Amino acid sequence: MKKYDVTGIGNALVDIEFKVKDQFFLDNKVEKGLMTLVDEERQNSLMQVINTEEAKKQAGGSAANSVVAVSQFGGKSYYCFRVANDELGHFYLKDLNDSGVSIGLSPEKLEDGVTGKCLVMVTEDSERTMNTFLGITQNFSVNDLNESAIKDSKYLFIEGYLITSENGKAAMKHAKKIAEENGVKVALTFSDPAMVKYFREPFDEVIGASVDLLFANEEEAMLFTGKDNLTEAREELKKVAKHFVITQGKNGAMIFDGDTFIDIEPYKTTAIDSNGAGDMFAGAFLYGITNGHSYASSGKLASMASSRIVSQFGPRLKWHEAKEILAKLNP
């Protein structure tokens, strides 16, 4: 019996989310719709022109959002990450603890530095634009992995954003090796089209022969495979992933269960904020397949959960919302 359903590894960022008009991007020379890595000076200059009092603050990072979702649905999750001994670092530890995620860090173990921050700018069309200063999380390395947690998990979940640094890539590869040597399945998310576009070869190194489960959206799937249509892209993905999920936004999702393709229908919703929808889909899906649900049932749960996420501001469900969604899945 494994102690954890999912152990995630990834960046630790305090998400600071706020609403903006399109003019904000023109005035401040921000490229809309992308995740852009920036230095601390650039991020601080942006923070000076936003209303931080109205901004929502939360412990985030792609994989962190997913392991929180696993916990909210009733699963057991662990997270490997790095934050600094500062106000936001202490906030991060408390927020993950309050979210039911197991962690190996305590305030007295934190090092000096600056905790990473992600400015999440949400426009009226529900598009998210992120400017990220990684801070101390850019030093995430093999030393931040908890080998015993990985070994005692059903799945290792690897965040694609780690691919941007050599030490992050090394940690991804080492964690995957630990998992494979101990019969733990490996899931990987590409995280963002920019990661696939600019780090295609490093991803090949991490994936190796294959992964057990891959999460991608349509754009990422086509960028990675070099195909210009989803039909060809999904056939190519079979070569690197035993199972995979391709999310399709308002059109639902497509799942390959190892034998057949399963179409997951979307749930009607009014989109307000797309931030965290992919993270929620991955977290809910991982909860499902590690807790006795089929791929189709897990996909339905993930679709319901992500549709709820885009209908509200912020990347997380409330605890009662997770229970309501589970109740709908199992009436």
Labels describing this entry:
331 residues; alpha/beta; UDP-N-acetylmuramoyl-L-alanine:D-glutamate ligase; nine-stranded mixed β-sheet; five-stranded mixed β-sheet; 13 helices; kinase activity
Task: Please sum up the structure shown.
This protein is an alpha/beta fold. The protein has one domain: UDP-N-acetylmuramoyl-L-alanine:D-glutamate ligase.
How many E-type strands? 14
Class computed from helices, strands and strand pairing: alpha/beta
Stretches with pLDDT under 50, minimum 5 residues = none
CATH topology: UDP-N-acetylmuramoyl-L-alanine:D-glutamate ligase
Shape: globular
Supply the number of helical segments: 13
Secondary-structure element pattern, one letter each: EEHEHEHEHEEEHEHEHHEHHEEEHHH
Which CATH class is shown? Alpha Beta
Count of spatially separate domains: 1
Oligomer designation: single chain
Strand order of the largest sheet: 6-5-1-9-10-11-12-13-14
- Estimate what percentage of residues fall within beta strands: 15-25%
How would a crystallographer describe the biggest sheet?
A: 9 strands, mixed
Spatial gap, N to C terminus: 28 Å
Mean pLDDT: 93
> Quick one: CATH superfamily?
Ribokinase
Keywords: Kinase, Transferase
Organism: Algoriphagus boritolerans DSM 17298 = JCM 18970
GO molecular function, one term: kinase activity
InterPro entries: Carb_kinase_PfkB-like, Carboh/pur_kinase_PfkB_CS, PfkB_dom, Ribo/fructo_kinase, Ribokinase-like
